Amino acid sequence: xxxxxxxxxxxxxxxxxxxxxxxxxxxxxxxxxxxxxxxxxxxxxxxxxxxxxxxxxxxxxxxxxxxxxxxxxxxxxxxxxxxxxxxxxxxxxxxxxxxxxxxxxxxxxxxxxxxxxxxxxxxxxxxxxxxxxxxxxxxxxxxxxxxxxxxxxxxxxxxxxxxxxxxxxxxxxxxxxxxxxxxxxxxxxxxxxxxxxxxxxxxxxxxxxxxxxxxxxxxxxxxxxxxxxxxxxxxxxxxxxxxxxxxxxxxxxxxxxxxxxxxxxxxxxxxxxxxxxxxxxxxxxxxxxxxxxxxxxxxxxxxxx
Length: 305
What we know:
Blueprint: E1 3-8, E2 13-20, H1 24-61, H2 68-76, H3 78-85, H4 90-109, E3 118-119, E4 121-128, E5 134-141, E6 145-150, E7 153-156, H5 166-174, E8 180-182, E9 187-189, E10 199-200, E11 213-218, E12 224-230, H6 232-235, H7 240-252, E13 256-260, E14 263-267, H8 269-274, H9 276-286, E15 295-299
Antiparallel strand pairs: 1-2, 2-3, 2-4, 3-10, 4-5, 5-11, 6-7, 6-12, 8-9, 12-15, 13-14
């Protein structure tokens, strides 16, 4: 099992890592990516707040003695300004997760025993603004995927980095490399890999890129139910919409009891919610997935996070 994951901050940070050639790089990501992201976020936010303070000082320098009333009004709003500064911006989160991925990439390339090892990295961060509105920040390297369920419809939060993808194919060919068809596996490959971006895989650099694609999407509290991250062992046998449909089918099942080796389990809707990632992974195996399957599901209802 070379897949692994990281969940922190009550589900406000979730990531899946699908290792190949060994579990070394995916293990590094699991053990260090959240720590590095948190450290970089603190630093970025400090710099952001410092720049904001310098800008305010410049404004104060431009205020004349006749503007005392305006200065007093500004002082009355200091507490509000400080509250705003206490929340890192989406840009700070974006820079922090990009920096964490890059740091682990550099570290993996230093080690000879990781030359033929690599990993995907997909992460979703729930950013909460000063107004309480939430935004999903998604970062992806490789062919693991993150999706959002919005009004029972699947929304892809990330793009799969496969050699068959037209944008990836164009990037690869611009570097003088080509994409080959593997008739045995019935997939496209580059440098003998079935994905076009990865952390690690020193032998395949720079054609197999480690550059993360990062995007953001505001949460719609009325329609958004959950987001889900998974390795390609799930996506090999189920589409994004099939996963969303399966989750709702499980939620709509009537309450029933099941006998197990450990005793009787009552399958209530709440129990299914808590174990839904396991149900999804099991369904992928039932549908014939021949790869490792790692699934994280985070419910977006505020009372559930």
